[in-house]
Amino acid sequence: MTKSALFLSAAATLALAACAKKPPEQLPPAPQETATPEAVETGAATPGPGTQDHFETAVGAVNTIVYFDTDQYDIDSEDGSKLQAQARYFAQYPNVNFTIEGHADERGTREYNLALGERRANAAKNYLVSLGIPAARIRTVSYGKERPVALDSSEAAWAQNRRAATVVIN
Q: What residue numbers bound the domain in which 158 lies?
């Protein structure tokens, strides 16, 4: 073997030795226990403020959605009580921002339903603002008829889809 071949062979051996795995000087900490799905289902772990689960638990899931009559966007007394429950929650947690999603049923054009969904989301937002919730914390979006919760073409399904849903975004 020539000197250069010997030198290359020694360099390759040293390079491979440098790549060999060495045991860590300190082992990582043992994994900590987390809540199991069973614990969450039984209520052992409670969601923290600023999450959708916490919001729904605090105000009641039925109070997170306001429903509207056909082609309407006015807030009636039942809707008002739902929005008052939401306002109490958002007043208690001033760092929580949220979105109000406006929806419509499948009837009507896409453009009409987007505009109607926007009016519904804004009606809910304006009501919350009138109760003292800063407008800067509230985002609105209209999905029109694009995100139905009920897929049937019946009056019952349409009634479920005509809504403004409040969703925590923190």
A: 59-168
pLDDT in tens, 36-48: 555 445 555 667 8
What secondary structure letter does DSSP report for 49? T
Taking the C-alpha atoms of residue 74 and residue 120, their distance in angstroms, rounded to an integer, is 8
Tokens 């921002």 -> residue: 97
Give this prediction's pTM.
0.72
Question: What are the residues whose beta carbons fall under 8 Å from the beta carbon of 65, sequence distance 6 or more?
Answer: 82, 163, 164, 165, 166
CATH number, position 103: 3.30.1330.60
113: helix, strand or coil: helix
Dihedral angle, C-alpha 148, 151, 157, 158, nearest 10 °: 50
